[in-house]
Description:
Rossmann fold
Amino acid sequence: MSDVAIIGDIDTVTGFKLGGVKKGIIVNNDEEAKNALDELLNDEISIIIITQKIADNIREHIHKRLGSDVLPMVIEIPDKSGSSEGGADQMAALIKRVIGVEMVKWLMKEILLKLQVLLSSQMGWEELKCMKW
């Protein structure tokens, strides 16, 4: 899987194509949006960008086709008229789905390591080794 693609209205797709996204599909209705999503899934695109309004209209189709898979990532963005309600909730759900628990574990290890370094610089190493973690 590789590459990025965009599904949206003509203005959004044109903007992303000018920005370097090679694959863009302009859709005008829900049926075209469903067909575009299916096409991109068959092309094994790793990141699919879709406008929030279109995604809201085909939400069931997106969930049916993707299930709980991490890839491809479907990223919803506002179109030229602004974001829809719940846009932040959708991004939080995406981050949780992609990053998951492993990232939280890694982050905690990094925090503990930095805390150990900080404490060791302020305390003697012998005092630090005696501390309970």
